[in-house]
Specification:
The chain has about 350 residues and is an alpha/beta fold. The protein has 16 helices and eight strands. α9 links the parallel β6 and β7. It binds flavin mononucleotide.
Amino acid sequence: MVTLTHAGVRHLIEEYGGCDRYYTEMISAEAITAHSEFRSWYLDLQPAPERTIYQFLFRDAEAIARVAAEVAELGALGIDLNMGCSAPHIARGGGGIAWMQRPDEARRAVAAARATAPRAKLSVKLRLGERRAVEPVAEFAEALCREGLDEITLHPKTRSEPESRPADWRFIAELQERVPVPVNASGGVTSVELLHRRIDRFRPAAVMIGREAIRSPWIFAHARGRRIEVDRRVAADRFLELLVQHQPPEFHATRAKRFFQYYTQPLRWGARLFQTLKKCASLAEIRMQVHEYLEQHPEERFPGVGAGSDVALCELGELGEFDKARHASGVTPSRHGL
Ligand SMILES: Cc1cc2nc3c(=O)[nH]c(=O)nc-3n(C[C@H](O)[C@H](O)[C@H](O)COP(=O)(O)O)c2cc1C
């Protein structure tokens, strides 16, 4: 996730036991091949190169081939092509979800990445597209699979559905029936309990946890049943240390604020705290404000084992017979993150 899943945050998660797989921020392929100033920070694969996938934003097949060649020897687990980001400025530039409108070129892009990086795990991140239906995304994805794709992650929402609307995981199961590669689910996991319920119900190949991994960097450990005692003050301090160690000074303020936007969400007065943090002039001041809040609200400092934030907990309603059919699918789900 842009501004969030940099090496600092990945180290933090790793210190809480880690997850099966990390994804970098969506990195501009052009910025990498143009040798931009921050290139080495974006390409940093620590702390677990063999479990980390580069995700790229790109506008044409040549760009993805060039960047795939450049990163081929850096030791990443794979390359993920972002064809799902719906941010207007990304789509206007021809990246993210705009790829779904250019299926032939998208096929060429997958083929080019496959040819350049034959050993890399090659995946795409998708949304549903324009309509709440599986057909358009399934057709698009089937064609990409024929070019050598290894897996797909679907955020099952349309281009225009707002963040507040729940992702409809029924589309994960529907897409899985249409394509020969594993389909991972992304969207709306806010607690371990909800994660397990969704796995039981929809049987995704794996689950990508996004914002909750920032609210609760320990969620992967808790999902595995590990009893980790969490102290939100210690985690905040450690994040700030890791941010300084693993990001360039130019990024510190923006990335700290983005992190705390999510980290403060589970707190009762988190919205107010975040407004205060946004105005802080230094990381030291952010740290002090977080300490002060948790001193005033000591009951929030130690979330229980297994607890998630449960912010915006969204269930999908009664899905009845649909679920029962999926239970029989026999897929063994795993979980990975970011
Ligand atoms: C701040 C922010 C940045 C994001 N950046 C990316 C990104 O770089 N690449 C990507 O594939 N998805 C990105 N996403 C979407 C998430 O990967 C994920 O699909 C979405 O947040 C739903 O999952 P969640 O409910 O677990 O967060 C971003 C989301 C947010 C909120």
